[in-house]
Structure formats: C-alpha cells, structure tokens
Amino acid sequence: MSHIRTEGSVSRTRAEVAGLVDHTLLKPEATAEDVAALVAEARELGAYSVCVSPSQLPLTATGDVKVATVCGFPSGAHHAEVKAAEAARSAADGADEVDMVINLGLATTGRYDAVQEEIAAVRAAAPQVVLKVIIESAALTDDQIVGVCRAAEAAGADFVKTSTGFHPAGGASVHAVELMARTVGGRLGVKASGGIRTTEAALAMIDAGATRLGLSGTRAVLEGLSD
C-alpha cells in the first residue's frame, strides 16, 4: 500500500500518524469491557494514548500507551472549582493528560480573562498532567478562537484542542486548526478532534498544524497509510 498524500502534504507512515493519536472512547454508554478493548487496540495500533471518561479510571495494562481523560465534558458549563476538582481526581486516578472544556458562554461574550482564570484553576489543581483546552472552535468566530487560545497559553495550558465531538456546531476544520496553530506559534500543541474519520482528513489536519489527533475510528484512518 502506498503512502497517501494530500496536496502539498508530507508523506507520513502509519507509525508516524499513530504516534499522534489519542485513541478515544467517550460514549456515555461505554463499559469497562469496551475500555479494555480500546486499550488493547491502542497498544496494537501504536497510538500515543487512550482518552476515556474520568469514571473509567484508573486503567490497567496500558503498557506504553498514555492515559488521557476529559474534564467539564462535554458542555464546559461547570463551575471552575468543579472542573479543578475533577482534574485533580483524574490525576490521582492515573491520568497523564486532561482535556478540559472551556465555558463557551464566557468565550462568546469576549470574557477571555474569565476563561483564563478557569483554565488556570484546572492547571493549578493538576500541575503534573498535560493540559489540553477544548475550545469548541466550530462554535466560535475567528476572533474568539484567537482570544481563547491566547487565554489558554497565558493560563499555562499545554495544548489547545478544537472540539469535543459532541457540539451541534461541528468538529475540527482545517481553517480552525491553521488559525489555532498560528496563534500559539508552536509554543503549545494543537489537537484536532471531532469528525476526523478518513486518512485524508487526518493528514489535512496534520498539514494544517495539528500535533495531536483525537480519533475514535483510528484503525480505519491508519489503514490508508503504509508501514
């Protein structure tokens, strides 16, 4: 099987793309057995991490696969101290990474200082984890995307992330990833997540500046790439 390229893209191997993937299962009805199967598949595929709901922690038999979870998910409309407590509990339960959802009501009204404060509260509660900030980019204007990305950086986040995958406005887009990557300028990672189901879509996100991918259909995406 040949490498798949999008126009202007760099050819990437299956292993290279797999190493960027948070292999994700956040369906509310997911069982412990489903999560165990997710972990086994992530190890088989060479994914960077698994991303599961916090109630599924702690995980076992993860090997070299990192453990990620979510916080304030999926609405983000939680008190900052609740998000902070959730992140702290997840860290105590073995999470290496926490993906937190911002309060969109603050973002859409330009209250970026308040967004920064809630991110900083989570950062302070779980200083040892990699903190990714889900901005729900499809629900924001370009100016709002820039504003919340700057707030995330100022608050000490490690990544900005496009989407939960649950918002009716949609998931990741190449435009949003490009704008986010340009705003953080390589100082933070950029995670593209939400609706990425094909090899071509995944490569387009990487070409746009994504340094991590959130995928639920990881196997299907990787099957389009060669070893």
UniProtKB/TrEMBL annotation:
<dbReference type="InterPro" id="IPR002915">
    <property type="entry name" value="DeoC/FbaB/LacD_aldolase"/>
</dbReference>
<feature type="active site" description="Schiff-base intermediate with acetaldehyde">
    <location>
        <position position="161"/>
    </location>
</feature>
<dbReference type="GO" id="GO:0004139">
    <property type="term" value="F:deoxyribose-phosphate aldolase activity"/>
</dbReference>
<keyword id="KW-0963">Cytoplasm</keyword>
<dbReference type="GO" id="GO:0005737">
    <property type="term" value="C:cytoplasm"/>
</dbReference>
<dbReference type="InterPro" id="IPR028581">
    <property type="entry name" value="DeoC_typeI"/>
</dbReference>
<keyword id="KW-0456">Lyase</keyword>
<feature type="active site" description="Proton donor/acceptor">
    <location>
        <position position="99"/>
    </location>
</feature>
<dbReference type="Pfam" id="PF01791">
    <property type="entry name" value="DeoC"/>
</dbReference>
<dbReference type="GO" id="GO:0009264">
    <property type="term" value="P:deoxyribonucleotide catabolic process"/>
</dbReference>
<keyword id="KW-0704">Schiff base</keyword>
<comment type="pathway">
    <text>Carbohydrate degradation; 2-deoxy-D-ribose 1-phosphate degradation; D-glyceraldehyde 3-phosphate and acetaldehyde from 2-deoxy-alpha-D-ribose 1-phosphate: step 2/2.</text>
</comment>
<protein>
    <recommendedName>
        <fullName>Deoxyribose-phosphate aldolase</fullName>
        <ecNumber>4.1.2.4</ecNumber>
    </recommendedName>
</protein>
<dbReference type="InterPro" id="IPR013785">
    <property type="entry name" value="Aldolase_TIM"/>
</dbReference>
<comment type="similarity">
    <text>Belongs to the DeoC/FbaB aldolase family. DeoC type 1 subfamily.</text>
</comment>
<dbReference type="GO" id="GO:0016052">
    <property type="term" value="P:carbohydrate catabolic process"/>
</dbReference>
<dbReference type="GO" id="GO:0006018">
    <property type="term" value="P:2-deoxyribose 1-phosphate catabolic process"/>
</dbReference>
<comment type="function">
    <text>Catalyzes a reversible aldol reaction between acetaldehyde and D-glyceraldehyde 3-phosphate to generate 2-deoxy-D-ribose 5-phosphate.</text>
</comment>
<dbReference type="InterPro" id="IPR011343">
    <property type="entry name" value="DeoC"/>
</dbReference>
<feature type="active site" description="Proton donor/acceptor">
    <location>
        <position position="191"/>
    </location>
</feature>
